[in-house]
Queue: 4 jobs
Job 1
Amino acid sequence: MSVYDEVEIEDMIWNEELEAYTYQCPCGDLFQITLEELRLGEEIAHCPSCSLVIRVVYNPRDFHPSSGETGNGASVVVAA
C-alpha cells in the first residue's frame, strides 16, 4: 500500500469529538485513527474526504489495555 506520509503518534492530536487521533490532510480534512484500531495493531490512518492514507508510527504495546482494566478506558496518556 502506498502511503502519503509516515507520522509519529506524538505528532497527532487526540480529538474528543471524533474519539480518534487526527492529523491534518492536504485536502483540508483530517486523517483519523481510533484508539481501538491502535489497540488492534492498525497503523494506517485514513482521510474520510480523499484517498490519501498515512502510516502511524507508534509502539503497539503502549496501547494495550492493562490486565485489570475494564470498559473502554485507555491505558495511555493522550497527547495534547
Note: The chain has one helix and six strands.
Job 2
Amino acid sequence: MNGRPILTAAETRAAEEAVFATGVSVEQAMKAAGGVVAEAAWRYAGRVPTLVLCGPGNNGGDGYVIARLLKARGLKVRVAASGEPKTDAARAMRARWDGPVEPLAEAAPAPLLIDALFGTGLTRPLDPPIAGPLERLARAARLRIAVDLPSGVGTDDGALLGPGVAYEMTVALAVLKPAHRLQPAAALMGRLVLGDIDISGVSKLVEIGRPHLPAPGPADHKYTRGHVVVAEGAMPGAALLSAMAAQRGGAGYITLVGKATGLGGPAAIVRRDAPLGDVLADDRVGAALVGPGLGRDAVARSLLDVALGAGRPLVLDADALVLLVGSGALPGMPVLTPHEGEFARLFGALPGSRIDRARTAAERSRAVVVLKGPDTVVAAPDGRAAIAAPAPGWLATAGTGDVLAGLIAANRARGLHPFDAACAGVWLHGCAAGLAGPGLIADDLIAHLPRALEACL
C-alpha cells in the first residue's frame, strides 16, 4: 500500500553501519554517493561552470568525489571548503582532488552550486561564518543542487537551521529522510532524486505511495464495494461533498442521513430522514463519516454519540473533532482527520516533529490520525506513520477536507485497515488535485477522482 521507507538520522547511521559490517568501506560508499550526485548534476545542468562546497565530514568527502568526476567530464570545477576534512574517508577523497581548495568565505560564485557542506544529522543552527557565505553563493548561482539534504535543515523534523535557500534539485543518498517531506525544509528541495548506493534500511515511517485498489470483479456488488453512511448536520453542503467524494472514490452505496433538501447532487446518493442509529444498525454498512458541517450543538453531540456507540468503522472530521475534546481513547480505531488547529484543540501542545506529535496522538486516542497540511502525516496507534508527497497548494480552499474525509470513508468501507484507508485517501486526494490544476475548488476534485482511481487499478 505504501511507498519508500523514510529513515531518521539514527536509522540511517544504523543502516550504513550494517553495510560497513559486511566489508564495504566508507570510502567505497563515498565513491558511490559522489558518483550518483555527479551523474544527476551532469544530466540536469549539463556543461556549466561549477562550484562544489565541501564540509568537514563525510558529506564533504562526497563533494570532493563529485568535483573530481565532473572535472573528468570536462567541466570547469572549483572547490570551496569550510575547513579541513575531519574523517579518514573525507581526507582520502580530498587527497584525490587535484585542484585547489578555496576558503568558503572567499569563494566567488559559479552558475552551478553543489552544496556538500552538511547532510544527514545536523541538529543545531549553522554558524554565521558558514551560513553567510552559503547564502551569498547560493543566491548568486543560477542552479543549486543539494547533496542528500540542503545544508541547514533538521534531518528528523524539517526545521530550518540555516539561511533557507531554495534548491532546484536535491539528491537524497540511499534513503529518504523526514526532512525531504516535512515542511518547511521540503519546500527547499526542488526536484527530489533518490540515489541508489546499495544502502537500505527498515523503518516504521514511509512515504505514502500509490495504493493498489483492484477494480470490482464479477462477484462484487454495491455492498461489497462498500456502503458509506454520511451524517448531515448544520451545514449540509459539507456532508454532500463528502458523500459525493465517497461515491466517486469507489464506494458502491452512499446513504446521506439528514433533513436537508434541494442541495442537488447525484440522484444515486440515497437520502434518508431517519434516526442515524437506525441507519447504522444495518449490517451492510461498511463505514460511517461524521463531522463535515456537523455543527457543535446538542444535536451534533447526539449524532456523534450515536455513531461512537454503533460499532461501525468510523471516520471523524471537522466539528466531530471539536466535540471529541477530552474524550481520551476511542472505540474501534476510528480515523481522525484534524488540521493543525483542530489537532491542537484535541490533543494540546505536544512536543516533537509533526511525525512525533501524530504518533503520540494516535497512541493516546487509539485512532489513526491524519494530521492534514502541506506535509500530511498519517499515524497509527502501533507506531506506523506515513508522510504524503507534496500536494498542490491550491488545496487550501474550503471543502477539500470534506472530500478527503469522504475518500477515506470509501476505502474504509471497502475493508481496508484504517491506516491503509487513510493513506489511500490522502494519495487519491493529492492525485486529483494535481489533475484538477490551478484554481481548483473542492467540487473539481470530485470530478477528477475517476482518473485518480484509474491510476490505482
Note: Residues 227-454 form a domain with the UDP-N-acetylmuramoyl-L-alanine:D-glutamate ligase fold (CATH 3.40.1190.20).
Job 3
Amino acid sequence: MRVLAAMSGGVDSAVAAARAAEAGHEVTGVHMALSSNPQSYRTGARGCCTLEDSRDARRAADVIGIPFYVWDLAERFHRDVVEDFVEEYAAGRTPNPCLRCNEKIKFAALLDRALALGFDAVCTGHYARLDDGVLRRGVDAGKDQSYVLAVCTPEQLAHAMFPLGDTAKADIRAEAERRGLQVADKPDSHDICFIADGDTRGFLADRLGTAPGPIVDADGNEVGEHDGAYAYTVGQRKGLRIGRPAPDGRPRYVLDISPVDNTVTVGPREALDVHEIVGERPVWLSERPSGAFGCRVQLRAHGEVHDCTAEPEGDLLRIRLAAPARGVAPGQAAVLYEGDRVLGSATIAETARVPA
C-alpha cells in the first residue's frame, strides 16, 4: 500500500513510520506545520509544531529512508481546533483539543489530501489497535489513545494505520534506539500543544478579555468573584479565589458554569455526582443500535471507565450510569466500550443528577 506517515517529530510517529516501511509499504513521511509562527525550540515536554520538531521528523525520515515533506495546515488547525477551543470555553464547556485535532485535522484534512494524492492510508503513532476495522484499546493501558480516536468514522478508520497499538511505550523507545532514531529519548509532549507555557487561563484571557462575574454557592449566595467564567471547568477545586470557607469547612468544587449570566456555581464534592448524560453528535463505529444496551463509558482521556446503559434517541445519545460519576464536564467526549472495543462516542451536552 501507499502510506502517508504523519510525523510529528516525536518518537512514537517515527517508530510507526519505520514499522510501516519495514512491513513493505511504500511510505512517505509528512510533518504537519500547524502553527503560522512556529518557535525555534519547545520548552521541555510542552508544545509542539516547533522548528525543532520539523527538523527531528526530517532526520527520522532520513534514517528510515523515506521521502519527507512538510504540509502547511496552520490555517485549518487554527480555525477547526484553536478557535473551536476558545469558543467552547466561552460557551461554558470544556473541550478536548486532541480529540478535535484527530477529527478535523489528522483524519479529515490530512486524510482527504492523502487520498486525493493516491495514498491508501494514513499512519500515525497513536496507541490504539485496528482489528478488521474494529477500533480497540492499545495494550499499554497507560498510553491508550482509543478515547481520542473514537470520533473517527468507520470510513476514516478504513484508511488508518496504528502500528504501535500492540506495544508498550518503554519498548517503543528501546526500538527507536535500536533503529538509530535520535528521538528515542525525546520527551513526550503533553498538555495542550498550542499553549506552550501551559497557562490555559492566560491564553483564554488574551482572546476573551476580562469579564468579572459572581461565584455563588448552590443556594445562590455570592461567595466570590471571577475575572472570566471561561477560566473554570466542572469539577475544578484549585484556583477558585473564594474569600471565605464553606460553613462546614469542606472544600468547594465548580458545579456549573453559566455563560448567559456569567456565573460560576460551586458546592460540595458530592454535588458533582452525575447519574445521567446526554450526548450530541454521536458517532457509531458499527451499526447504530436500535435500543438500549449495556456497555461501559469513559468520560475523559485516561479517566475511569463506568458501567452504564446507553440508548440512542434520535440525534442524541442518553447514557445512564450504574453508579454516579463526578466532575463530568459538557464539551468532553463520552466513549462507549465493550471490553477493549470502541462502540462509539458522543460529545457531552448535558448531565443530570437523578434521585435513586
Note: The radius of gyration is 21 Å.
Job 4
Amino acid sequence: MDEEYDAIVLGTGLKECILSGMLSVSGKKVLHIDRNKYYGGESASITPLEDLFSRFNAPKPDETYGRGRDWNVDLIPKFLMAHGQLVKLLIHTGVTRYLEFKSVEGSYVYNKSGKISKVPVDEKEAFSSDLMGLFEKRRFKNFLVYVQDFKEDDPKTWKDMNPNVTTMKTVYDKFGLDPNTQDFTGHALALYRDDDYLNLPSLTTIKRIKLYSDSLARYGKSPYLYPMYGLGELPQGFARLSAIYGGTYMLDKPVDELVMENGHVIGVRSGKEMARCKQVYCDASYVPDKARKTGQVIRCICLMSHPVPGTNDALSTQIIIPQKQVGRKSDIYVSLVSYTHQVAAKNWFVAMVSTTVETDQPENEIQHGLKLLGPIQQKFIWIQDYYEPIDDGLASGIFISKSYDATTHFETTCLDVLDIFRRGTGEDFDFSKVKHDLGDEDQ
C-alpha cells in the first residue's frame, strides 16, 4: 500500500465503483479500498433469500419461496435509462460483456383517482391515454412534437422561446397544458422529484424529456433497463472497467484514518500501512464529520407471487406517484422486478415502495404505493438517514457522494456521480477517452 495514487476511492457502493471506473478511464492512478468483503455497500444485492430474512430479523422463509440461492434482492433497486450516459459508458467500454440487461416492461403514473396509467410518450400513446381528455390530448401531442423537433443549436426549433431564459412553466402555458398534464410530464417523463424546475430555464427539462423518449425508442416497452441477477452485478462491472485501465482493488481492508496535512488529504491509513494520494472519493460513512443529515428515506421490499394489478401482467415495471396527486411534497416510487431477471425464484416478484420521509409516521407515507401491489407475502421496511457533503471538497481533496434517494431510477445517481467527477477533476467526463476497441467483440 505504500505507493502514491492520484485518487483513492473508499467503499464499493454503486457510485464509488462508477467513479473509480471513470477516474481510471481518464488516466488517473486509482486505488479502491472497501472495508467489506463484498461489492455494493448499501446498494448490494442480498443472496441467498435466508440472508435477507435474517438481515431484517424475520423467521426463516419456508419452502413456498423456492430455493434461497435463486434470489438476489437489491436493497436499493434502480432502473437505468436505456439511452443514458452510464449505459453508453458500459456499452462503449465493453463492460456489457460482463452484464446482461433486460428491458423493463412498463412505465406508469398514478393519478388522484387512485388508478395507474401508462406514461404516454408519443403521439399514438397520447391519443389512447386515459390521463387526458380529447382536447388536452391534442395540446399534449403538440407539446411532444415540439420537444422531439427541438434542437439546442437551432433557434428555429425553439418556437420563439429561448430555452436558456424561458421557464418551463411558460412553455407549458404556451401549449395550454393543464396542471395534471404538467404534473405527470415533470415527474414521470422529466423525472423531477419536486416542482422547483417549473421556474427554471426550460432547456434541462426539454433534454430530460428527450432522453426519456430516446430511451424508450431503443426497446419500445419502457425507457428503463435492469441487469440480470440484480444491481449487485453493476459495481463489479465498473470495478472490472477500472481494472482494465490500471485500477487496483482491495476488499476486506479496514480504513482507520484519512491522513491530513494543512487541511488537505495526503493519504489513507489501514493499520500500520499508508497509501499516499492527492484525492479521496467516498460515501459519508467514511467521513461522518464532513457530511450532514438532511432527511430520511423509507423503503419497503415486498415479496409477491403476482405482478402489479392494472399493468397488463408486466413482469417488471416502474410506477411514479407524483406528490401533488396524493397531497405530499415528494413523490412515491414503486418498482417491480421478477424471476425473469434471475432475482427471485420461479413465479415470484420483488417490489419496492420508497419515498422521502415527511412525517413522524413514515409507514403511513408509503400506503398509496403498497395499496397498488395487491397481496404481499412478506415485506421488509427500513428507514435510512440521507446524508449530503457539507462542502464541495475542493479545499480538503475529499469528495463525498450523497446517500441514495428514494427514486427507483438511476438518473439522480448519475447526476451526483457526474457532479463529483467534475468537482474532483475540474472537467466534465470525456466519453471520447473510452477505448471503444475494448467492446468491439460485443457490438
Note: The chain has a mean pLDDT of 92.
